[in-house]
Predict the 3D structure of the following.
Amino acid sequence: MDFELNKKQKDIQKAAREFAQGELKDIARDCDLNETFPPELIRKAGELGFLGAFIPEQYGGAGLGFLEHAIILEEFWKVDPGLGQQLCSTTFGSEEFILFGTEEQKQKYLPPLASGEAMMGFAITEPDAGSDTSSASTSAQETEHGYIMNGSKTMIGNGTVGRYLVVFALSDPDNESRAQRHSIFVVETDTPGYEATRLHGKMGLRASDTASIFFSGLKLPKEALIGTRGKGFYQLMQFFDRSRAYVAAHGVGLAQGAMDLAIKHVKGRVQFGRKIASFQATQFKIAEMATRIELARTLTHKACSLLDKGKSDSKVTSMAKMNAARTAVEVVDEALQLHGGYGYFNDQDVERFYRAAKVLELYEGAKEIEKIIIGRHVLGRY
Amino acid sequence: MDIIVCVKRVPFTQEVDLEIDKSGKSIVTDGLAYVINDWDGYAVEEAILLKERIGGNVIAVTVGSEDDEEVLRRALAMGADRAIRIDTCGRSLDGLVVAKAVAAAIKGFPLDLVLTGVQADDDNQAVVGIMLAEIMGLSHAAVVRGIEPEEGSLKVRVELEGGIDEIRQVKLPALLTIQSGINEPRYVSVMGIRKAAKKELKVIGIDELGLSEADLALATEIEEVYLPPETGGAEMLSGDPSKLARAVIEIMRRKGVAV
């Protein structure tokens, strides 16, 4: 058992750190305030190989693993969760192409993602189907030439800026099993019948694009189906087994970034005639934060390493994601506490981190869903 | 153009409260993050820009331990062709010994240009580059902030005191110490890191370079390292920001800063 990153992974970590310091740091606050991100940032990150590091080399990717992807994302989130999320989101759902796509789909859709030329998203959530994904009612009705899609999705990353999305849709409503009624399709967003509206007013991660989308009689060719008809739910679960592992890295990065801000603050702030870092109350907080982050990172790296060894483990992945998200929420709370009243103003970065944290316990599976998965694995039959 | 670029790994000390260690001759390095010396990052970029422009070969060289290979891998990832680490074999070194070791390690290499940073972030001595030029008998220029290749020579822009630059013609082979800001160093890419793993990184012990004990003897010795004593002299201003700004400008004028 080796708990140390190898040389290549350490070099990638440093490279991502330098990129984040150089390209994200100075624009982060404005991007958050204005709910925007510079499109050229995606291109730059793509050219340097920081997007979707798990995309195989033959499809233009870096050909690395989920661990490397997680390492890069942690560095980005450490500097700014909002832009970190945007840089993660552009390849979100590309796992469906890698795992289940045809050779044509892989060649068409993966290279533009890796280079940063195109962005994608995964349209799963619907107004009436959140955690209950198998209730999704966006329909994909088979026709002579393909499918017709109708319905709506909400809270979808890159809905307004993505070139294509993979969409979880109801293709076989009459199947007896709720888990065999759905399929996954690739939808190009310039297809007639596609409409997206950007959602405003998010609490955090405001730099990243989130939209409501509507499909009205959108025509899809037969080749738009990814994987197997009726197996969409299983394909979706396999996606979550991967994405949750690197979403855990979002939480690790956010927590580390928040603690770094707190450390900087307590070493500079003087109260009662001494640096507040010298108070044991402060030291205990920092000690607890640092320990929790170390644990969250270790579990995240374990989940990612297992995936890279081909041993997908829903339990460990869910644990990693749930724990990292909780760590982020609790660490950023203490980090803001250490800033005192200053932390409540948006000229302090910790304010932005605080607002960003909560979504980690909501998206990519609410923590309750992760608990269900973990509980089921641990308890087994009863 | 055959270019050698010298790099050093240094602790990242910005925003770090340094501590003096028990010996009183060094700092506590536990927990410090390490980076490529800032000036050397510019030197590597300049070497690669020259190679991309007129062709050639770039070799990155460092003196240090295995951990220091990180900066060589970084140079390789940026585009250097191969790298050499001179292992210290457990010896303490000073600037002169480092210069002698590098000179011995690259002796006989086809060579048009050696680039180093002006100085290193850690000890700020700014001696290795020019001593290396002297030992190797190379023409040199220090604090260079612009390079224009010409036939058999380089036109270089050298930074002088007081914001004045001098344009100088330097015959090849030459050594230049590179000033920060000469270019904008590229980011290290994931693809670059992958390529770097396949490039040659050779390790030579300082004891295998044919240097005598006299050559390896330290010419300088650190007697004491201390934190600068806190001094007075700070003038605290308070009041309305517009008046404060005026007061600051007035002080700057008084001290001779052009405002």
